[in-house]
Every structure is written in structure tokens, then in C-alpha cells.
Amino acid sequence: MLNVQSLTKHFGKLRALDNMSFSALDGEITGILGPNGAGKTTALRILYGLLKTESGQAYVDDIDVAVRPIEARKRLGVFPDKFGLYERLTAFEQINYFAGLHGLHGAEGKAATHNIITQLALEDIAQRRSQGFSQGQRMKVTLAQALVHRPQNLVLDEPTRGLDVMSTRILREQLKNLRDAGHCILFSSHVMQEVAALCDKVIIVAQGKVIATGTPQQLCEQTGETQLEEAFVKLIGSDEGIAA
Ligand SMILES: Nc1ncnc2c1ncn2[C@@H]1O[C@H](COP(=O)(O)OP(=O)(O)OP(=O)(O)O)[C@@H](O)[C@H]1O
């Protein structure tokens, strides 16, 4: 379970987060949907310990990330907004390196790496250097890195950006499998269709605040609309910065 309470964050005079609170439960895919600059990345970065909040708390399975960051990270897989692979390493070496960062060394690390390679069907590229990998192959290796230590919780920042249709479908299937296995999945997006297709719960944010929370159906009912896109426009009063 992931939970943030009353997060506030400024960059200079700009208030990126304004008393933001939300949670994501086990066995559910939760989507944070909001226009460009709404504060999605900032909130996720606080959750995975890359940024400090000015006030409020962020919890991973009830562990305060500011107080016990290492324990929080053990329970969290992160697919960050910017990712790069070490071009000279093979996919196996990349993933195994991340296993080591999470305390899985030697035979234990190798077993965990083999495991996730099988789970994500990465065998064909496992022994290739990542230089020259397609965008979809990069995505899968990055996902494997995030999952190698079998975290209960997974946070993804705009995971389908730059992916073709096939890679997007593979990613969606993986997220559904993880959800069905009881994991907690939180991802940010400004793509309406993706959120509508995948999410059990949607958190709508704008200008650093949570505007509404609910299932896609609840948000439609709340606004008297039949489409999430229309509900969203009604709730935030604009469709600027949102992709259909
Ligand atoms: N390191 C930073 N320095 C200055 N301003 C920042 C920084 N990080 C974020 N901001 C600003 O904070 C606000 C929220 O940014 P954030 O990246 O969290 O939004 P977002 O909802 O993820 O947007 P997008 O969908 O465009 O990725 C924006 O106005 C952004 O310009």
C-alpha cells in the first residue's frame, strides 16, 4: 500500500504540491491523471525518496519514507520518469546489478535475475548489450530492474511514453498480472485512454491538488458524464495538457 498525506512542495515561488493526499491499495491499479505540470512526478519522487517534502508524510506499507528510507525502498519498485540503461552491460548484467542494489548478491541475485527474465519473457535479449535495444526492449529491462527484488509496491511515472502499441500492450498485461497477484500499482499519466483502460481507481490532480478520486465509473456518475474524458474536463474545468 502507498499513501501520501498533506504533501506540500515549492520550487522557488511555484507551489508544485499543495496539501496533496492520496492512497493506492494492494490488488489495485491506481492512476494519477492530471495535465502537464499538475505535480504528478513531484509526488511520485517524494514517494520514492528522490525529493523531500516540506510538510506531510509519504508511506510505503506504513513505513515513513523520510524516517526509514532503506526499508521503504525494499518494498518499492520504481519505473522513473527518466531512465537510461548502461549501454555496455547486457540485459542480464543490468538487472543483476539492480538486484545487488537491493541487497540480493551472488547466487541469490542471479536467481532473482533469472526469475524476472523468465517472467517478462526477456530470454532472447538477456545476453545482449543494451546498446541498440528498441524502446520496447528498454522498457522491459527497466521494468525488470524495478521488479527484480519482488517489491509489493510498484510506482511508474508515465510508463508508456514513447512506446509503440505492442510494447504498451505488453506493459499493460504485466501490470494487470501484478495487480491480480495482489501487488499495489500506482502510475501517473496524462493519457486518458490508458487510465480508463487500466485503472481500478483514478486520482485526478491539477495545480498540486487532488480534485477527485474514484473508479472511472464513479467519476462519470459524480459528474453526470458517460466518458472519463468528459468527467475529467468537468472536474478540472479544462482539457489543457491532457492527451486523449
Ligand atoms: N526541479 C524542479 N525545479 C523547478 N520547478 C520544478 C522542478 N520539478 C518540477 N517543477 C515544477 O513543478 C510543477 C509540477 O511539476 P511535475 O513534474 O510534478 O508535474 P507533472 O504533473 O508530472 O507534469 P507532466 O505531466 O508534464 O510530467 C511544474 O510547474 C514544474 O515546472
From TrEMBL:
Leader sequence residues: none
Superkingdom of the organism of origin: Bacteria
Keyword Nucleotide-binding: yes
Alphabetized InterPro entries for the sequence: AAA+_ATPase, ABC_transporter-like_ATP-bd, ABC_transporter-like_CS, ABC_transporter_ATP-binding, P-loop_NTPase
ABC transporter domain segment(s): 2-232
Residues passing through the membrane, by range: none
Keywords: ATP-binding, Nodulation, Nucleotide-binding, Transport
This protein's record includes keyword Ribonucleoprotein: no
A GO molecular-function annotation: ATP binding
Family: Belongs to the ABC transporter superfamily.
Protein name according to UniProt: ATP-binding cassette domain-containing protein
Species in which this protein is naturally found: Simiduia curdlanivorans
